[in-house]
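User: Could you walk me through two proteins back to back? I'd like the raw sequence and the structure tokens for each, with a short line separating them so I can tell where one ends and the next begins.

Assistant: Of course. Protein one, sequence then structure:
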Amino acid sequence: MRLVLLASCLGFTIAAPARLPNIVYIMSDEIAYYELGHMGNPYLKTPRIDGMVKDGIRFTHAFAAAPVCAPLRCNLMTGKHAGHASVRANDGGTPLRADEATIASLLKEKGYATGGFGKWGAGGRDSTGVPEKHGFDIFFGYYDQVHAHSFYPPYLVRNSEEVKLPGNEGGRTGQSYSHYAIMEEGLRFIRSNKDKPFFCYFPITPPHGMYDIPGGDPAWKQYQNEDWIKDEKIPQDVKNYAAMVTMVDNNVGQVLDLLEELKLTNNTIVFFTGDNGGQDRFRNGDHPRGFFSPNKDPRSGVEFRGGKGSLYEGGLRIPFLVQWPGRIRGGQVRDLMFAQYDILATLTELAGARTPKDTDGISILPTLLGEEAAGHKQATHPPFYWEFGNMQAVRLNNWKGVHIRNKQSWELYNLKEDISETTNLAIKHPEVIARMNKIIAESHEPARPGTYTTRERHERDRRAKWGTSRPQPSPRVASMNRIKGKNLVPFEKMKLVGFSSENQSNNRKAIFAIDGRPDTVWHSSWSDGLSKHPHELVIDLGATHRVAGFRYLARQDGGWNGAFAKTEFYVGNSPTDFGSPAAKVTFTKDRKVQSAGCGKPVRGRYVKVRVLSEVNGEAWGSAADIGVIGKPAK
């Protein structure tokens, strides 16, 4: 829908402040609808966020514009739904186009200082989508979402340049907790711009990513008397997650307290929300919908179906709170349905800025401030449209349709009577499906993403998630099989000089195939982009050897994904020039060390491992360790 906004409405019907209002938008990564204290969660403590319910307005039907991180950030910033968005993949790197307006660029036209602090996700470095090219005076944090999984990366990014974090190598430990640096920079931005209107965007990472939080964080104090926190049977990541949610709550308090200190409270509208629907993390027999039950009402037991990544309610329903003392009446709970792509039109109306004609949202300002103050009635929302992966969805009032693309099949639910989406009514209401088919045809157009000049720095950022860190030893490592034996070339003498692919995002690096640790795993690329057979590793033995054979240890973590089947081993005097295979073998599903002999020793310094198939017939390759049997050549 294209909404024409009259700036005069703002100027004459709202009791105008002395200057344009400040805007603070806090979006916590994956904090879910039922993961807040005021929603009855029995574990998580969020007193400052709960205070926003008393002092402002809570929405019960706020929707993510997409069920995953990167697309929804594009939808939010550009005001476009998924069918018109430039970013639709959740790869963390697909960029906005250079010509796209954003909330920041539109507010900047009205004289706003603009700052973003957290995870961008709408274009990596050296792309057309970087935030400083889309209206932000400053953006500090992570440009790529894989980078954002670690709270101890070796660096963060400010306006495309690296800012070193002392004592960090990546992974799960270090000396500089990245979220502290991000929050400090954001608070500094507010303080520095207190005398002019500002837009401060906090797309903060917690509680998503690796579940790490310093032991000395003040959030832990709120749990010190909780019996479940002391229960050694409950995993530490579960406890860390709770503390991270409360850390976010403290961050909200920091922002509100700073605004009060600077006497900006009455001229600042503050939003708090999540990004996409909850994920049923930490599931077990006692908690089938996750330890914290993010998509289950703790009071009634009623559930949202699905979760992050799906277009059912569990993937789309998000918490959404807004406060503005003196402008928004406190204690309201409203059931207005809207999505993240409506925020652009809301903020441009608030600031008297222009709203581009190619946006899809409506302004919810009349609901926030009241229709009299806004100068017009709340517009009726056009049909909602979503798409992600194999799914498309439409909402028409209480009707929710889910279209499965590869099956060309429909599911239809009456959410007024069936919020859990259990009873498919598609066959009974062909007239509704017909209308939804028309909406899909009108709403979807091919994606037109932005471009990169080079991906070198973007790929560097993705690698920074783990950096040079190695995984912490598994508590089960003592019971795992290991490659041992006479004439085994020491792992510390070998060096990896080449590999076909590795999966950086979950720290399955190629170097782990020759590190002598059975609890680490090399895995070919899959979540970072699927690489198919053959998979190859090239190993430098450090000196010329008479190689007699090879050893292979499949992953020891319980999975078989990537376990070698047909495999060839080559020996040569150059890392790039190998003749015929020194050994051919077909490995099987076996956790124990498996062997491949050369028949007779082969002289050479370099070994190439070439994996042709996987034990389950899939495209992957993986290894806990690869050993070489041989003696130094005389």
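----
Protein two, same layout:
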Amino acid sequence: MYKFAISRPITTIMFALALVFFGLSEKFRMPAALYPAVDFPTVVVTTFYKGASAEIVESKVSDKLEEAISGISGLDFVSSDSSKGVSIVVAQFKLSKPIEEAVNDVRDKVSSAGLSAEVEKPIVDKFSVNSSPIITLFLSGDANNTQKLMTYADEIIKPKLQRLEGVGNVDIVGLRKKIIKIHPDTTSLLKYGLDLNDLSSKIGSENIKRDGGRVIADKNEWLVSVDADAMNAQALGEIKIKDGVKLKDVATVTDGIADERSFANLNGKPGVMLQVKKITGANEIKIAEAVKGQIPALTGLSKEFKLDVLFDSTIFIKNTLSSVQLDLLLGCILASLVVLLFLRNFTLTIVAALSLPVSVLGVLAVIGWSGQTLNLLTLTALTLAIGIIIDDAIVVIENIYKKLESGTPKYKAALDGVAEISFSILAISAMLLAVFVPIANMSGIVGRFFMSFGITVVAAVIVSYIIAITLIPMISSLVANPKHTRFYTKTEPFFAAIELRYKKALTLAVKYKKTTLLSAVGVFLLSMVLSGNLGMVFMPKEDKSQFTVSIKTDPGMSMEEMKKKTLEIQKTLMGAPEIEYCSLVLGKVHEGSIYVRLKPLESRKRSQSEVMDEARKKFAGFKGFRINVMEVYDMGGDE
């Protein structure tokens, strides 16, 4: 391979440029994320049973679904949560079970569970760690105009956000849908000899929209539809209940909004929360930027409402990835400077440095082709690979340089130099592959995350080897200069002294073999002892200037009482000077959470963990509630 590369410089250059081109293409195409996209085989079954108590939901829905699902092969465990009118069953499968197969198996079992006719059809969906909101907006306005706020959020803002590229869904927390309320007048009902059942039956039969068949003539055909669906309170009031009696005669019909079953506020001010979620494979950073770009236009649609960015998960992602990319750039620069310091030849340093961008971009191309994302682990692997890439280049260049110093012509020096060292580089690369290929094929949860890390390092080793025996010797055969510079001459005594000291140290190590071996064993044993004191954690804890508070109580508490108590908890929390803002969310009547955003680290005296510890102490006084203070988890949820 190296003979062909050296003798065909144009072909070799085109190969390198192809790597650069494909690498740049994949870099701008690849989605950016904090961690690799990982799907755990978890299936969620949501079932609605209107009007049923938690006990009835558990006995007639949850227990039957659990029994049906428990017979599926590969099931790890199944759990359920039953509340008024809703059953949520979660089936966790072993990691070896394909997620699509798990969803199909659960759907088949659920369809044959034998649920009552009054139970709505269960919704079977797979759980994704990437299903958490990318960016969350908060819409607020005049407290006396709640109905208009809800309509504006649901019918104006939500559709515009859902049309953005990459957006999968927009959930609205605290939304109360538009409804038509009917308040029967019992006196009028008695007057006309009617009861509530008559009223309900007549409304259902008269307020319809259905297919009415078709009319066929000799040459034409017409579709017939029955459109008696009332679109507003006035039209519904005109429904005929009996001869001479309309609905408006026996009841008051008004437009309104549904009863409050969820709630959201920001610093005590009520409103609605719009959670923007992505489709699989979409670029989170681009979605967040697109949503932020829409905020001025959305705000301009109505001056009555205020739209704020409550939470943006991409801020931490961008900061982390930028930091790693800076480390990658610094690694390239420092590696090149080290090569210059020891080779003391500017031309050969440039040759070695060229291998870095070409190899890195070649690895990015492989990462993109393999369906990976640009995340913390792939960038960390690239940073680690800088040493591998520059090491291969140094070994080849140093051997070629020796040939040049001995008077061998450039072309022959490149051929002989790479020929002598190519097998050694192959052996080193094979050894590295033997270490990192198993990492790319690890099993379990850790293996799912480190697969992209292993693929990146394996790709770096292979690309680095190819570049080291093709591009490096080819360029060296054209531009290598064996002449010593003034810098080389002046620094030679210093390096000669280092070499002499190394020879003395090596002589002593060889002379006292037992002492050397015992010292090495001692260092190994000491490292084993010290490593035993290291803690173990899946994700390191960081001060991200944010945390969440989970609030739960037993079913039975009313919505108003839950709001009152949780607002007290929020007020207690807002007393801390480090808090910038906090938002309360009640997704269910007996469950809620508070998202807390702290001031930047440099603007506060206490750390995030200290603020969290103080909050835990304050919450100890709230009896009847289970309150947990947690860090915001990067994988979609809370720790």
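Residues 410-440 form the longest helix (31 residues).

Let me know if you want the two compared in more detail.
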